[in-house]
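README, section 4: Worked example with a bound small molecule

Sections 1 through 3 covered apo chains. Here we extend the same pipeline to holo records, where the ligand is supplied as SMILES alongside the sequence. The molecule in this example is fe (ii) ion. Nothing else about the input changes; the structure line simply encodes the ligand pose together with the chain.
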Amino acid sequence: MTSNIDYIDKIPNNVDLGRDRVLQRALEHWQPAYMGWWYDMGPTESHNYDVYLRTAISVDPEGWAVFDYVKMPQYRWGIFLVPPTGHREVNFGINKGQPAWQDVPGEYRSMLRRLIVTQGDTEPASVEQQRMLGMCAPSLYDLRNIYQVNVEEGRHLWAMVYLLHRYFGRDGREEAEALLERRSGDVDNPRILGAFNEPTPDWLAFYMFTFFTDRDGKFQLSSLAESGFDPLARTCRFMLTEEAHHMFVGETGVGRIVQRTAELMAQHKIDDPDHVRALGVIDLQTVQKYLNFHYSVTLDLFGGDISSNAASFYTTGLKGRYEETRIDDDHQLSDATYKVGTVKDGRVIDEDIPALNALNERLRDDYIGEVQAGVDRWNKVIEKTGIPFRLRLPHKGFHRQIGNFAGHHISPDGMVMSAEQWNGRRDEWMPSAADYTFVQAMMSGRVVEPGKFANWIAPPRRGIHTQPIDFEYVRFN
Ligand SMILES: [Fe+2]
Ligand SMILES: [Fe+2]
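The generated complex, written as structure tokens:
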């Protein structure tokens, strides 16, 4: 059967899709597979719901955020690149000063494909990780937000698949298919990166994920937005506009949980975690443990502290530093050094290494700075209630599987311990099976009445777009 889908209409885009027949056919072939993936792995039981969603229909300020009820399988997953700027150059590395590439430079083809595939793989992975959570949403407002995040991760997959199809020929098409075949957590065919194979079993984990792990996405996209390969740079720029909402969902979600808990603690004048739990809210110690887990697995996503791959990506001009063009230096890093942490003689020490090899670590440090500011804002929420508890980021070396700290056992305070000592205290620092059971039991049902919220979370300060908090964000039909 031939498809008569009008892709200009069906896939909103600003890449002149209708004028490239080969590309159009390639995407026509991929689209049904994508829809199959969405039906199988997208949010459970959601296909017939009307969801009040934001859809990007163009990149200009009026077009990129149109709000209306949409059935998610009918969401218009478009392809948008921010418009080209005249005379953009490669801004760093050995090719600095050349005109930015509009096509893939042959010698960098496999590196570039790897960068795009690795980024692309995270997008469907998070949808898979979150697919059950709609069944226990704390409100219609939150349900709508997770669906918004999910459809936009789907759009980000489209964005990467567009690049693969448009610029990488047959290999690109094969990679695009493989992106729909890997599965988060699958033993035989897992997603590429570790954190994207971890379960997201409850809403506290979801908010932590969107705060910590979507923010890794932001930093990766930001450094790819500096790329000398112009279509990648322009794609990532536009993806960043959507990513901001995902991090908002995470930050405000955790913020509303700690607010609810701290308010009840103040009201009942209690601080014992068991007493707190007895009130049907999540004790702050458990929030801290989730934080420790999600922070540490996300730090691993930045890769090894000393990395020759990162150096190659930079030197060739494919992946820059965070806000590369705002940094005032030679953008070559020929003589610069950078401090990385490492374990020597039973202690964590700093070591100077060539800055080119430390680019993962540098990006991780930029990320940590931003994450710390978010944790400070959560602490302000707790402080307002008069409760003395404070959340904090564990040491960078805590619970790491990748880089200099892998294989070491480091406490949240940065003490190097034996495996035995560390394992003996593991459940003080990270969610135990009992903690997960407790949190999941609390989130067993879905709150469906407009304006109502589960007991364990405070309402948001305002609704979505211009709608009130008690708006019917999702209609179940
Ligand atoms: Fe994304
Ligand atoms: Fe995201």
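What to look for in the output: Residues 123, 153, 156, 217 surround fe (ii) ion (ligand 1) (CB under 6 Å). The mean pLDDT is 95.

Section 5 describes how to batch many such records.
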